[in-house]
Write a structure and sequence with these properties.
By secondary structure, the chain is of the alpha+beta class. The chain is 33% helix and 19% strand.
Amino acid sequence: MPDRPIWKSGVTLAIIAAICTSLVAATWQLTAERIEHNQQEWLERSLRPALAGLFFDTGVTESKLTLPPPHGLPGSGPAIIYRVYAQGQPVAALFIVSARGGYAGPIRLLIGVAMDGSVTGIRILEHRETPGLGDRIEIIKSDWALQFDGRSLRNPEPGKWKIKRDGGDFDQLTGASVTPRAIIKAIRETLIYFAANADSIFARGDD
């Protein structure tokens, strides 16, 4: 039996490759929407705990701003702000910023601020702090982060936004002071930014 021409083998391989590519593309199209939906739901669930006690009728992630540096918020990278509304009126802003000066590097955190300038909640999103010491900033490991709920630049005044060891109003973590110092400073800076820029934050269009 004569050998099959090389060009015919090439055509066969090309057809198989085209079929495989089509199958992959079809599978991606079928699953991409579901993946995006699941990611959006996860993000919504992650952000909502920082809005405890507030009524709002929009999705947490519906109105988003990304501020390129320099922006005046903690961290040297882009800052993300989610704006939350009730019946068309601003309710709160959620800031995703980076606290500089952590023991093991920057600490990515979520800070919720109500329109009256009070903290609605904070959550730690990413860090590399020491297990058993600095990692107790996580809400699942201690209630340390809850002490900021309801606080503002009037409660206490800006000069008291420190750990108690430094003459401030806030508890530190046993055996760890560098980490809480960095977070408290970041929260204070965010509150100062919000107080000076609330109107412009809600006046800007979405990304």
